[in-house]
Amino acid sequence: MRRLARFARLLIKYWDKELVLLVCAGLSSLFGLIGPLIPMAMINYAYNRHDLFVFNMLILAGFVVFVFNGITGAIRGYTATYIRNMLDFDLRTHYYKHLFSLSQRFFQKRTTGEQMFRLGPDISGTVSFVVDTIPGAITQITTAIGVFVVTFWLDWKLCVLAIVAVPPFYIHSCLFGKKQQQITRALREKEQEIHSAMAEAFSHAKVIKAFSREQSAVKRYLSSWISNIRLRLVSYKIGLISGSSLSVMDTVITTGLTYYAGYRVIEGRMSLGAMVAIMLYVFKLMGVLKSFGDLYRDVLVKQVSMDRVLETLEAKPDVADRPDAVKVDRIEGDLELREVSFGYEVGQDVLREVSFSVGAGKTLGIVGQSGAGKSTIVGLILRLFDPESGAVKIDGRDIRELKRASYVDKVGVVLQEPWLFNTTVRENIAFGRPDASEDEVIEAAELADARDFIDELPNGLDTQIAEHGARLSEGQKQRIAIARALIRRPSILILDEATSNLNVSLQRRILANIRGWDQKPTLVVVSHRVTAVQDADEIIVLKEGRVVERGSHEELTKRGGHYQALFSCAGEALR
Ligand SMILES: Nc1ncnc2c1ncn2[C@@H]1O[C@H](COP(=O)(O)OP(=O)(O)OP(=O)(O)O)[C@@H](O)[C@H]1O
Ligand SMILES: [Mg+2]
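Above: inputs. Below: predicted complex with adenosine-5'-triphosphate.
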């Protein structure tokens, strides 16, 4: 019921169209009700009395009913299609917006394929529930009442007999409906799994090829499909058993009623015309009553889609702006982590009481073994997650007091995985600031030392770089990602292994460009390379989520501790 209310609310916006739909549906039921009266009148008043005038009038009435029925049917069809499409658009927009208001943690739990599947068939199922099932139910109920009244008026005994026959249909629907719902749920999950596997295989085709695992990728896909086919066959079987048992019940009951009515005609207790009309009504009544069973099954099956859509719509972002969050127009660039502890899962600490601070315009280096928690710190500064205890502060204010979008706007970041979009180089750079001018795009590209290779691309800045930047080398991708961060003219710039695929001289040049830039951002450099951090004002060394050393490159090198150990194997530290 709660689900129903939630989705039915979407219809309010289209109340006028919905009214047209209901009026047309009402007229259709009315025409359906009048229909059987025509043959009855034809037999009783035209044929039996050889009355040509009545005959002509009835033919005309039948024609008018037929034409009007056609017209209302067409209006109803168009209106339903209109509402369906608009509602589909509304729900998709709402869903998509909501999806991106959720935090990173939510995205990590769901695969791309799963999300896409929910945006596809699940939303369509939900819309169909609102557009087809709800108005369908209303029409069915009103038709049922109408047919019941007319049948009762014509012959109450047959009417009661027809109603007595209904409970078996209802029990039948309950039994098979639940089964069908289970299968639909399993089918949806299987199809979603196939989508996920496909999305993953396509975006990692290179890895599959490199390990020559094409066969197993195909096998995985096919075996998922085989399970899917099995489920579909089971679903078909259930449908078949359900359909056959339904038609057996139907035949038995219909034969019984026909026999009884025919018997009364032969006995002379009922006219032939009345019998034809009554039987048409009785079948109609049974049809409507039976269709409640279909309706019930339909509700159960579509409930699966609605539940899945609602699950996302009701998910709350765990990182959300507080109601009293302040919008910041500019930030100086002072950054501080104070006793920050954090874990992705409960009871698993990734960072333990990490503290550091870096003044505006200064540079902080973060080094440490793989898995020490460096990228986690970057995630916390961007507020992809909130710390369990402690605080991340910008200009002395806890970032939870600020409107996230307003300060993240002033932060530039190159993530460890610099995903690029399947569009032009220009749009990838301008992604950092969509309103950037041509000159600003070029300036950012120059600072990131990307100008030369961009100029050599077939269409320069307008070259399409394919999915995930497939047409570029890793180092070129990194430079575009750096340009994308710089174009924001950030007050804080975070480079997480941003130069790992560049040679040392190129890395030096880019870092020097950034330091000499008039923007003077606070720089946080995360790196496995000593050359990337040695000029930093302060370097912190992380080990298993704790800061174990801090100081300048010279101090740390002299100390001969973790920092020295980290780089000595590479023979780099003391250079
Ligand atoms: N999304 C996540 N969910 C759960 N655990 C995670 C997640 N991301 C990272 N971790 C865990 O947190 C720890 C720190 O990861 P993090 O990515 O911060 O390391 P890192 O220092 O950046 O390593 P690297 O140098 O290899 O990039 C690791 O043990 C990792 O397994
Ligand atoms: Mg990392």
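Residues 421-489 form a domain with the Rossmann fold fold (CATH 3.40.50.300).
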